[in-house]
Amino acid sequence: MQLPESEVYFNVLQVVYYGWELLKFIMSKTFLRPKVSSTKVTDWVDPSFDDFSENTDISITATSLHVNNASHRRKNVPSRLESSRFPARKREKPLSSGQIYGPENSKDYLSENEPWVDKYKPETQHELAVHKKKIEEVETWLKAQVLERQPKQGGSVLLITGPPGCGKTTTLKILSKEHGIQVQEWINPILPDFQKDDFKEIFNSESSFQAFPYQSQITVFKEFLLRATKYNKLQMLGDDLRTDKRIILVEDLPNQFYRDSHTLHEILRKYVHTGRCPLIFIISDSLGGDNNQRLLFPKEIQEECAISNISFNPVAPTIMMKFLNRIVTMEANKNGRNITVPDKTSLELLCQGCSGDIRSAINSLQFSSSKENSFWPRKKGTSSLKSDAALSKSKRRKKTDRVFENQEVQAIGGKDVSLFLFRALGKILYCKRASLTELDSPRLPSHLSEYERDTLLVQPEEVVEMSHMPGELFNLYLHQNYLDFFVEVDDVMRASEFLSFADILSGDWNIRSLLRQYTTSIATRGVMHSNTARGFAHCQGGVSGFRPLHKPQWFFISKKLKFLLSKILESFL
Ligand SMILES: Nc1ncnc2c1ncn2[C@@H]1O[C@H](COP(=O)(O)OP(=O)(O)OP(=O)(O)O)[C@@H](O)[C@H]1O
């Protein structure tokens, strides 16, 4: 097809125009720069060197595309930004005569302000705040699948799960380092931002640049898996060049998999046959339970692809205490004038509020210990930790008990504490109480004495809220399980009345949303109050030892009902 003459002219003009623009751009970059730099040499030199570490990172990202220590970069971003900022801030201060800020001084300043999670990050497996058994499990898997790997073994897959900040990634990285294993990590690609002009360019019919540079995350992920299997990672400074043992680590799954998990399953099925390198997924539990894990890695897929699963627990309060104590003591020795040392009870409260997340605990500790914020009761020097030893044993135990029972007390920097459903149910059904003397609280008049109970140690409404579950659903679980915790038939009758009343309130569509919180109160408080066998701190009868809790039969019945209804409808059609 021949173009009309005017169009040919136009295209030639366009080429000439772009050529001229390009020439102008090159001229400005090459010839104009010396002028600028010569006028303000110091301005030009300083920022270039300050940004050096960040610049090198960027160039590595561009070339290695999601491979290598990318997560390290991501997780350490704040600290690096901090570290590049501090020396600059120092320079802003006018220097007094004789005061010299050499490299040592700025290093001191840096280490004083460095986040403690980075400063005290573990270097060996013995420094990990993770249960030994879990470390052993991961180590055994790595030995079997990476170190003693057979040449023609397919792609083995490991799934590591657990709550956020319990040390999953750190454990894996430390063990890999100790055994000389390379970690190639997938990081979700960030597409370059589109500018207004880019869109104009794309939709301009006369423009020759009409390609839409887009690749879905899933395509890039598949390519990454293929490449990571085929090629070695780029060698970074300090990397061990001798090892050919590798693992692929995926912590940040492409978002599309959450909408379409079948694609992930297809990739996994293929990878198990074609992959040549062990693949490890790290998935953090979400607040509402392990939904992500069930969605992305259902039991059938785990069995089909022989995926091993190692589940981490939250860091235990005792282990957490040990590490926080060590950190705060070291900081107090080094930098005592700038921090307030918390006492033992405050530390226990902090551990409790962080739900087993050591990262959050250390951050909260650093924030709240700084003299500027000073959350802790002020005590002189480091002695506060020691002075606590002076407390009598019984007094301390009482304090600890209160800390552990009173879920409503939010710790400093505390997280939104979520309760595992069955733990929340247990809190209602076991209904622990504290005895009160008459001074503490007035008693009911004698004619109401049968309703007299000791004070509850939990707030039922808060327990339901922390279970992250709709009140009606929680009531269902309560309904299914309360019988095992009762002894007297009269108590059962009263409890069932409360549950039925709550049911009636939540059954009316018009007022359901308004009365939702009242139905929860009626059901939970009703069940707790009805159980006279557990009405007082000194008589916690009715249950001995552990009682298994069950899923409501209602689910099964409703499923059956739906099935029957659909069958009846089918027979009509
Ligand atoms: N003794 C310790 N044990 C484990 N981690 C520690 C310890 N001291 C400090 N840390 C820091 O706590 C953080 C733990 O985070 P990590 O990424 O390992 O948790 P995670 O379980 O993978 O959670 P997420 O999925 O949210 O990343 C790291 O920054 C680590 O440096």
UniProtKB/TrEMBL annotation:
Keyword field: ATP-binding, Cell cycle, DNA damage, Nucleotide-binding, Nucleus
Protein name: Cell cycle checkpoint protein RAD17 isoform X3
Superkingdom classification of source: Eukaryota
Stored PANTHER family: CELL CYCLE CHECKPOINT PROTEIN RAD17
Region of interest called Disordered, as start-end residue ranges on this chain: 71-109, 372-391
Family: Belongs to the rad17/RAD24 family.
Subcellular location: Nucleus
Main subcellular localisation: nucleus
Native species: Acinonyx jubatus (Cheetah)
Classification via Gene3D superfamilies: P-loop containing nucleotide triphosphate hydrolases (3.40.50.300)
Signal peptide: none
